[in-house]
Design a protein that fits this description.
Order of helices and strands: EEHEEEEEEEEEE
Structural class: mainly beta
Helix content: under 10%
Number of helices: 1
Distance between the termini: 27 Å
Strand content: 35-45%
Length: 146
């Protein structure tokens, strides 16, 4: 059972049977494929589409689940508007060509400083992270969810 969280704005909850509720942050509306990609989680809220560009920008004030399809090798910029203690999720899809890479700016923290993606065309990877309001700590990268 989802519960109302303190604060203002629309929240969404991701939950899975036996795991209890987990807050994934602020959001608006979301497409059904995100629920499928999260493998059993029921998500109420929104996915913020990111603009594919040489450097991809993320604004944490717009939500906490983001999606982008890579059409070239890209850089994921330092996000702005992050909430201390906020949990964030990036859904990164390869285009029809695949084999695209994603580099991270200095405020990202990952094991070994890399962001390994599935190279297959159309594959979907999930980058799960939390923030202290300044840095982004990647807790997991789940490859080829699709």
């Amino acid at each position: 059972m989802a519960r109302l969280l303190e604060g203002s704005g629309p929240y969404f909850i991701a939950r899975s049977a036996g795991k209890g509720p987990q807050c994934w942050g602020l959001g608006a509306l979301m497409p059904l494929q995100v629920e499928e990609a999260l493998g059993g989680y029921h998500v109420v809220g929104g996915v913020v589409p990111l603009t594919d560009a040489p450097t991809i920008q993320t604004n944490g004030r717009l939500g906490s689940v983001f999606s982008v399809t890579l059409h070239g090798n890209r850089i994921l910029a330092n996000p702005t508007g992050l909430v201390p203690g906020g949990r964030y999720l990036w859904l990164v899809r390869q285009d029809a060509i695949g084999n695209r890479t994603l580099s991270l700016r200095p405020r990202w923290r990952t094991m070994g400083g890399v962001c390994p993606l599935s190279p297959m065309p159309g594959s979907l990877d999930l980058i799960d992270a939390w923030s202290d309001g300044t840095l982004v700590y990647v807790t997991s990268i789940t490859q080829n969810v699709s």
